[in-house]
Design goal:
Blueprint (H helix, E strand, L loop, with lengths): L2 H14 L6 H22 L4 H32 L2 H23 L1
Helix pairs in contact: 1-4, 2-3
């Protein structure tokens, strides 16, 4: 629970220091290593990555697509604005979601 926030908050600084890669190239390499890490963790737990994918179903496919959009948008946002602005917008998103759910769902 401590490692994930530290890695997410340092991702902006690390991404900004990559000088020679375009944003979509960074997304490719980040996604490739994320895939390899998740596949390795599933294999170490004795779960086949392919059967886990089939069990996820339509909800898992939709979740994966949204994760891909988020990953891409994060790196593109870092390339277009400052790291602080990107991380502030990311940190406000859960608060805005809670507020809008209260307003819309009552």
């Amino acid at each position: 629970m401590v490692v994930a926030p530290v890695l997410w908050s340092s991702a902006g600084v690390v991404t900004r220091h990559v000088e020679r890669a375009e944003p979509f190239e960074q997304v490719f390499w980040r996604s490739l290593f994320a895939f390899l890490f998740v596949a390795l963790m599933l294999l170490l737990q004795g779960v086949s990555p392919w059967s886990a994918t089939r069990k996820a179903g339509l909800a898992g496919l939709f979740s994966g697509a949204m994760w891909a959009v988020m990953f891409t948008a994060f790196v593109v946002a870092l390339s277009l604005t400052t790291t602080a602005n990107t991380l502030v917008v990311m940190s406000v998103a859960p608060l805005l979601t809670a507020f809008l759910s209260f307003v819309i769902l009552k």
